[in-house]
Structure formats: structure tokens, C-alpha cells
Design goal:
The chain is an alpha+beta fold. The chain is built from six helices and ten strands, in the order βββαβαβββαβββααα. Helix 2 packs across helix 4. This is Condensation domain-containing protein.
């Protein structure tokens, strides 16, 4: 696969304590819709969300790839479903709770995937996938569009060319995540087409804000009980 553009952004944790309202002002819960309120968005995520609300600054990746046989849309959709299960950022979205913007993780997120009319114009493809801003009511804040670009007999043994555009909320992932996700998608699709076994194990699990604060406090207590370990960490 050849990547033409890679502009995603990692799900950011608050870096500065004063940059977000105190988490104690917000009730931690798992609501009836099956979602976890992870942590308050920091200023960077809030800025990108403002861009998204205005439908201005967009982030996307585009992959151009060729295959020996015609692809089935179900093969691409399954690859995206597996990628979403492995990559926790793709199961999250930004939602307001009161006056505070939060990162939220969905229990059963949807797949926003569509097959577009065959076309060779990448500009038109980008417009179809990126032209509409995400909504707070969306179960996930990313979407993908696949278009067949025609047969290129000179490129045998891989004559069939496709373009896949993925648009994701810029407050959810960064460039590193985008590169890794692109590589994972490529590997997953290749495994599906080759009939190989696929690893669907999630890369990690996101914890809710209060859980993270509790774990950090436990680490702090253990470090304070072992001054030599603190010195060792400082030296490294």
C-alpha cells in the first residue's frame, strides 16, 4: 500500500492539571447507552474539536493499493472492524458533559464505512468523506470511504487499484497512531485476503479518570516508601 497522506492525532491525556476542570466536579458513570467517561479533554483536543464543529481543519489518511483480484466491500469492512477492536482510539469520541468536554469510550461502537462510486479523482473522494463534520451524537468520530480506481493492466499482477480514505476527529489520534493504524490495517487486510489467522486482541484498555488517578496515587505512595528507587529513576 502507498500512503499519500497521514494526518491523524493520538488521544491526548491532560498534560497540565490546571488545563481542565477538576474531575471531582463530574460524576463518573457508565450510562445506559454503554459508554465510559474516560477523562476530560485537554486544551489541544478542545481546540481540534472547535475546528471540527466549524468544519474547517480536517485530518485524514488516504491509502492507494492494488490487488490481484477484485476486493469485496465486506473484506474491507471486516478489516476496519478488527482494526477498531485492536485500536482503542477508534472506539472513543468527544462528548460534552455539562460544560466539560470528555473523552468517551463506547462499548459497542459502530463502523462508519461506505463504498463510493468508482472514481479516479482523489479530491472528490476527500470531499465525500471529509465534507461533513462529526456530531456529538455519533457513536464514533471516524469514517471511511472506499472507491475503485479502475483496472491498470500495466501494473500486473496487481491490476485492480483502490483508494481508501479514513477521516478521524483530530482530537482522538496523532501522527504516530495514524502510521501504526495504517500498517495494522494493511496487515489485517492482507491476512484476510490470504486466509491467515488474525490477531484481534486489543492493544490496551483505557481506564476511567478516577481509576487512573487512584493508580497514580498508589505508584506515588510506593515510590515515597522507597527513596533509593526515586534516586535511581532520577539518574536514568
Amino acid at each position: 500500500m502507498t500512503c499519500l497522506r497521514q494526518l491523524w492525532a493520538r488521544l491526548p491525556r491532560p498534560l497540565f492539571p490546571n488545563s481542565v476542570p477538576p474531575a471531582s466536579n463530574v460524576t463518573r458513570s457508565m450510562n445506559s447507552e454503554g459508554q465510559k467517561w474516560l477523562w476530560p479533554a485537554n486544551r489541544t483536543a478542545a481546540i481540534y474539536d472547535a475546528f471540527e464543529r466549524q468544519n474547517t481543519r480536517k485530518a485524514a489518511i488516504c491509502m492507494i493499493f492494488s490487488t490481484s483480484k477484485l476486493l469485496q466491500p465486506s473484506q474491507v469492512k471486516r478489516s476496519l472492524e478488527i482494526l477498531q477492536r485492536r485500536q482503542p482510539n477508534l472506539r472513543t469520541c468527544l462528548q460534552p458533559k455539562g460544560k466539560i468536554l470528555w473523552h468517551v469510550q463506547k462499548t459497542n461502537p459502530a463502523i462508519n464505512f461506505q463504498v463510493l462510486e468508482p472514481q479516479d479523482d482523489l479530491g472528490s473522494l476527500y470531499e465525500q468523506v471529509l465534507g461533513k463534520p462529526f456530531s456529538y451524537s455519533d457513536s464514533v468520530q471516524w469514517r471511511a470511504g472506499l472507491a475503485y480506481r479502475g483496472s491498470h493492466q500495466h501494473n500486473t499482477p496487481f491490476p485492480h487499484q483502490y483508494a481508501l480514505v479514513i477521516h478521524i476527529h483530530h482530537g482522538q489520534c496523532d501522527g504516530y497512531d495514524v502510521i501504526k493504524s495504517q500498517l495494522w490495517f494493511s496487515d489485517i487486510l492482507d491476512d484476510i485476503l490470504s486466509g491467515r489467522r488474525i490477531n484481534e486482541t486489543p492493544l490496551c484498555t483505557y481506564r476511567e479518570n478516577d481509576d487512573v488517578k487512584s493508580l497514580m496515587e498508589q505508584v506515588k505512595i510506593r515510590l515515597l516508601e522507597d527513596p533509593h528507587k526515586i534516586d535511581s529513576i532520577r539518574r536514568t
